[in-house]
Amino acid sequence: MIQFEEMGFTPGILRSIEELGFTTPMPVQEKVIPMMLGNDTDIIALAQTGTGKTAAFGLPLVLATDTEKSATQALILCPTRELCMQITNDLNNYSKHTGGLRILAVYGGASIDNQIRELKRGVHIIVATPGRLIDLIGRRAAKLSEVRTVILDEADEMLNMGFLDSINEILEEVPVNRRTLLFSATMSKEISSIARKYMNDPVEVLIGRKNASAENVSHNYYVVHAKDKYKVLKRLADSEPDIYAIIFCRTRKETQDVAARLMNDGYNADALHGDLSQGQRDTVMNKFRLRNISLLVATDVAARGLDVDDLTHVINFSLPDDTEVYTHRCGRTGRAGKKGISVSLVHLREKNNLHRIEKMLNRSFNLIPVPTGSEICGKQLSRWVEKLENVTTGHKEIEKLLPEIRTKLESLDRDELIRRVVSLEFDRFLDDYRNEEDIIDPVPQKEERKSRTVKKGSHGQSGEGYARLFINFGKADDFFPDQLISLINSNTRGMKVPIGKIDLYRDFSFFEVEEAYSDDLIRAMKKAKYMGKRVVVQIAQEKNEERGARAFPGKKPAWKNNRDNGKKNHRKTRQTFAW
């Protein structure tokens, strides 16, 4: 492996590299830097965000720029204000010990008069967002006639944001004999079109697999009902005590709603979306970078250009329609050789979208169970004990208070003291999960006729000793295991009915309970209602020739007459089932 010292950098640049903590070049740096320094070839580099590409083009630019000339010699285009500022800061760090290099960040939301003033003084490298640069070109403030290198960073992001026309307009302003480098996480048709039109026989550098997500990221998903997504999100956050994540939503409204619910429930969370002013946006992002916020809820557009190290998770509260957007999302974790996790909350209507993403990435995602309340409390307790073991105790102020503390607590023995401290520390988790039922995955569509065993606290297995009951609601009523369990719990308080196998059908369902509870349960459910309709729970009839007709013994129940609502051609045979 070639080292930075062997690449021909000046002592000043090598000093900056050392101060930044760079030891050996990352793969994209190892490939791109020698090409930039060795010849004038155009380059297409396909690499994820966070792979070290800024240094790959930034270090050679600092070395190659002639500070004796006041003209602009290099132009870097990027999609967002945040990325623009970040690249400028990195270039300033690289050139700290070289002297004389002037770099200007050009973006909307900042004073255009100040930017014009700096451009008139002379700037060697412009780092710009397309919209503001076009404005400055129109005012004849940005002069690009002597630009020799153009870099398109996160080109696919710029195209996703609708900057294609702006990029075309800008590239028409720079000399035709320039050098062009294009950095992108994915290779779309639009990227190929730009390469054909504006690049001269480019060399393609591939870091990882084309159109692939970060190799260090594991891809997991939960299958949930849409209405349960927030509950599952909370369980995911609670099951990871050290979580540091971006939660991606589809819309601004969804982003605001999810962030507001998280904050109301006591989480360190905030929202990032297009309705925020630039000042509000900067405040939120600074808090997130400092980890004063551990959960950032964002839209894709708002999060573009946000570069944060050490994310533990990327959470897709809603899957994106564009599979390439997924690549950008999950590429924000698992950086610099570290492991990352991408988790998607998928309801049944999104399964096809998930399979499309799997096919594009050529990877199978892991279906994982929703964490149970006991698992969550166990993880939180283990993390708390670990922190307790490692806490610093050398505070003199505390030593002064210890006699008074001992006096007040001397009536408590060790076990009682531990119980009270744990109860105080985990009050929220205990309240949330003490009586909370475990969230059950929806029945997969291909297996909707198969029975399932539903865990409800601790209960026996279905089969011998269990009674099979009929209930007059099914999947057409949005009635699934968690709705059944909730309905039973709300009408049988204090009984703790053990539930076994559940069979779901379109218009009705069957479930099993321990025989000792069946009569009491049927009586308790006589006055129950679900979605404004009367609930009917009966013992399921024996198997016979007229399965559908015999599901209801005797006279046709009133609820069925109501549901038919005068339909003369109501189905005479219901779906096939067995009991």
CATH topology category name of the largest domain = Rossmann fold
Q: Would you report the number of β strands? A: 21
The order of strands across the largest sheet is: 3-4-2-5-6-1-7
CATH level-4 homologous superfamily of the largest domain: P-loop containing nucleotide triphosphate hydrolases
Q: Give the averaged pLDDT, no decimals.
A: 81
| Overall number of structural domains | 4
Outline type: elongated
Structural class: alpha/beta
Note the beta-strand portion.
15-25%
Q: Largest sheet at a glance?
A: 7 strands, parallel
The helix content is 25-40%
| CATH uppermost class of the largest domain | Alpha Beta
What's the short version?
This protein has 579 residues and is an alpha/beta fold.
Report on the structure:
By secondary structure, the chain is an alpha/beta fold. The chain has four domains: 4-206, P-loop containing nucleotide triphosphate hydrolases (Rossmann fold), CATH 3.40.50.300; 217-371, P-loop containing nucleotide triphosphate hydrolases (Rossmann fold), CATH 3.40.50; 374-433, no CATH class; 445-564, Alpha-Beta Plaits. The chain is 39% helix and 16% strand. The strands form four sheets. It has a seven-stranded parallel beta sheet with strand order 3-4-2-5-6-1-7, with helices on both faces. The longest helix is centred in the middle third of the chain and has 18 residues, at 373-390.
Labels describing this entry:
single chain, 579 residues, alpha/beta, Rossmann fold, 7-stranded parallel beta sheet, 22 helices, 39% helix, elongated, disordered C terminus
